[in-house]
Amino acid sequence: MNNTDWNQKTVQELEDFLKNKIVLQGSEEYAALKIGWAVTNNKPAIICFCSTTEDVQAAVTLAGKKKLPLSVRGGGHDWQGRSVAHQGFVIDLEHLNTIVIDPDAKVATIGGGVTALKLINAADPYGLIATVGNCGEIGMTGYSLVGGYGLTSPSTGLAADSIIGAEVVLANGQIVTASEAENPDLLWGLRGGGGSFGVVTSLRLSLYPAKPLLAGFIMFPLSETETILHGYNKLMKSAPDELSAIVAFKPAPDGTKVIMIAPTWYGDVEEGQRVIDSIRKLGNPVMEQVTETTIKDLLESLSNFIENGHFHYCTTRWMSDVAPEVMTAIADAASQPTSALSGIGLMHLHGAPARVPLSETAFGLREAHFAVSALAEWTTEDTANADIHKKWVDDLFEKIDSYALPGGYLAFMGNDDKEQLANAHGSNLPRLQSVRKKFDPNGVFSREQVPLAR
Ligand SMILES: Cc1cc2nc3c(=O)[nH]c(=O)nc-3n(C[C@H](O)[C@H](O)[C@H](O)COP(=O)(O)OP(=O)(O)OC[C@H]3O[C@@H](n4cnc5c(N)ncnc54)[C@H](O)[C@@H]3O)c2cc1C
Question: The FAD-binding PCMH-type domain covers which part of the protein (predicted)?
């Protein structure tokens, strides 16, 4: 079928083509669905489970004919439910999940709904890995389109840097290919610009050798927060490419609150042991578990720590340095969260992603930096206290905002953070807006994360 035939079809013909793939609000099947990591108040009118590019073409056309707001769901892990449009038409890609590994070229071709752990499992027999974050259930496409900070990023780059090609279904149902040879401007935009061009039905991603990995966590008493943050700040600013490390605040198994550093070392194990030892010496560890492992085992074990089905409120800022005032504010907030589920996290990006020139991809910051985020999380039984939990995040960021760089990581910002969302693209914003206008002139895939040109 050629590209224009879909638009010539009637609503009835499109519905017939998508028979058994459409779930309507109000149906029994709809009531039983759990389609997002987060709980939100978004109730789509129609969810269409697409398993082929043709399904996606038909679904995009049908949504247009029904004049319904369109959203695309990959792994469903956006904290604000942005993949599930309220009263809209959701193109669900869970079943668009083929994975083909070319071990010689070290390239994976994946369907738009493939999740991180599934890709890692498919690449593993070939001794290869992909750049992935710390959650196996995240959609590889949704994660790569916003940038994709990964466990091995200082060596292997942002996930966006791994994108070498894509197939995209545009709002008019047309299929376009993005590569260095075809539509290179679209490829540029897909690399960390936040999406908003069309439905990415497949991605070609570079893969990397599965080297030995040292990973786990070291927990320190919460009372040592400022000392640990001081040491982390210093250590990460001269960290080698083999090291990535996240700071998080978690309860230890006995319930006491701790500050935790979770390192990942992707390289020579002996050298890694020495570096991990220097992290240990930042304070007085109360508990630790750092072992030789694989990305596959690490992602599987991390899944046990991630809970679904809660409400969230999140924000984030980029910082080139964690100033002492920021450490004090984080220590204060971490010692009195309004919900036991809420947390603060710090990541550091250095190495390979910081060596890519800013204009080479759409990602908005190419200097070594920290990403400081706070996530308020509460259960569906605790909705009455939602504003209190949100205020905990806002109060922290009011104190630390003036120490931040403009912008922040798109995935962890909310749609209300308009000024910083625009800054998040840095000097790439005008080009991103013009690429978006070219491929989605009517803003059908409009997302607050890529502000429209004014
Ligand atoms: C527990 C958890 C851990 C996380 N850890 C990390 C981490 O380590 N590093 C990191 O960088 N981020 C991390 N994130 C953030 C995550 O990468 C982003 O929220 C990402 O956008 C999720 O993608 P998804 O496909 O799972 O989500 P979805 O909610 O399905 O989609 C997110 C956005 O991407 C769009 N999208 C998804 N697939 C497609 C497609 N095929 N075509 C077009 N648009 C598409 C959606 O429309 C939506 O706007 C984490 C999030 C969670 C909840």
Answer: 39-210
